[in-house]
């Protein structure tokens, strides 16, 4: 496997100094060639990140581990004699922040964990909006363009998927999370700094996204591919399981609002575009049933709204 010698790491603090141009160029290069980059000096306090990690790991032990083990039993996954291709080896729960928070409806969270996650999410929301403007600058779009597109009538959708990928006795038999591209806009991931597992597909090779202390991994979803008319692309990624160690990952999805109208930005379209225009929620309805399939047929299906009505999402998975 190709190793991650050049995996793009962006020091956001350099945007304020002499290195600004190089940093903007590095972000652009990462968006064009990787669909992923890792941010350091992003402004999120390290003690807050420590607290989020500690509380998430405690919460897993207290409220999730037993459920995960019960799931293994009920699905007959304890032996793993043959390869499993329709289940993920992950334990997750979802928090929604925007347009309306559901934090108070999630069972088994202590008040302190709730408050900590609320603070963490607010800072990530601000970071996502700053990043969207950096993307606009690199794309020659006016400041605020992407935020405005994502706004729809109710503002963006912002949510967090809190995951743990427990150690797995036979990693070759099952993925932590099967390969997919993300449907939405910008994804901000706080991943375990010790246990690895996230990989992205680059030039037909699976490349590790290396754990890096206090970093936030950014990747781009299908909507940004459509809006940028393919100048930036969403990239396939997956999580592999590990024999040793429980991997924590907290993925926050900054997505368009449900009624946001998505289409390629006219300044990025030449004569014609191969990308569709649609309402974001219609895309999500389609995605729910075909998440683990390539994105190109999704884009094709969205070109014709009537094709979409004919599709029947099979899995009502909660996804952002
Ligand atoms: C996802 C995802 C990666 C991870 O939830 O879409 O890609 O490391 N997660 O959990
Ligand atoms: Ni993903």
Automatic annotation (TrEMBL):
Its EC number is 1.14.17.4. The keyword Iron applies. InterPro entries: DIOX_N, IPNS-like_FE2OG_OXY, IPNS-like_sf, Oxoglu/Fe-dep_dioxygenase_dom, Plant_2OG-oxidoreductases. Residues 110-137 form a coiled coil. Residues 156-256 form the Fe2OG dioxygenase domain. Pfam families: 2OG-FeII_Oxy (PF03171), DIOX_N (PF14226). One of its GO terms (molecular function) is L-ascorbic acid binding. The keyword Transferase does not apply. GO terms for biological process: cellular response to fatty acid; ethylene biosynthetic process. It comes from the Eukaryota. Pathway: Alkene biosynthesis; ethylene biosynthesis via S-adenosyl-L-methionine; ethylene from S-adenosyl-L-methionine: step 2/2. Keywords: Coiled coil, Ethylene biosynthesis, Iron, Metal-binding, Oxidoreductase, Vitamin C. Gene3D superfamilies: B-lactam Antibiotic, Isopenicillin N Synthase, Chain. Belongs to the iron/ascorbate-dependent oxidoreductase family. PANTHER family: OXOGLUTARATE/IRON-DEPENDENT DIOXYGENASE. This is aminocyclopropanecarboxylate oxidase. It comes from Thlaspi arvense.
């Amino acid at each position: 496997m190709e190793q991650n010698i050049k995996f793009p790491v962006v020091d956001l603090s350099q945007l304020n100094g002499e290195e600004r141009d190089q940093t903007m160029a590095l972000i652009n290069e990462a968006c064009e060639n990787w669909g992923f980059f890792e941010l350091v000096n992003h402004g999120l306090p390290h003690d807050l990140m420590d607290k989020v990690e500690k509380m998430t790991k405690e919460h897993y032990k207290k409220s999730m581990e037993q459920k995960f083990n019960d799931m293994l039993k009920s699905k007959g996954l304890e032996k793993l004699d043959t390869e499993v291709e329709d289940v993920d080896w992950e334990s997750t729960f979802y928090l929604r922040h925007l347009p309306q928070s559901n934090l108070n409806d999630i069972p088994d969270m202590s008040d302190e964990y709730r408050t900590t996650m609320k603070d963490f999410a607010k800072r990530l929301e601000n970071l996502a909006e700053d990043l969207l403007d950096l993307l606009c600058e690199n794309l020659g779009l006016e400041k605020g363009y992407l935020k405005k597109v994502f706004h729809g009538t109710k503002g963006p959708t912002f949510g967090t998927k809190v995951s743990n990928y427990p150690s797995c006795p036979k990693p070759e038999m099952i993925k932590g999370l099967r390969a997919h591209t993300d449907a939405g806009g910008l994804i901000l991931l706080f991943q375990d700094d010790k246990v690895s597992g996230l990989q992205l597909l680059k030039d037909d090779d699976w490349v590790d996204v290396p754990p890096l202390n206090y970093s936030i991994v950014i990747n781009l979803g299908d909507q940004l591919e459509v809006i940028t008319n393919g100048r930036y692309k969403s990239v396939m990624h997956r999580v592999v399981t590990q024999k040793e160690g429980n991997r924590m990952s907290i993925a926050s999805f900054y997505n368009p609002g449900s009624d946001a109208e998505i289409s390629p930005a006219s300044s990025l379209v030449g004569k014609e575009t191969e990308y569709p225009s649609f309402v974001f929620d219609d895309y999500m309805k389609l995605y729910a049933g075909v998440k683990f399939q390539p994105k190109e047929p999704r884009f094709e299906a969205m070109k014709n709204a009537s094709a979409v009505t004919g599709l029947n999402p099979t899995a009502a998975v909660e996804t952002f």
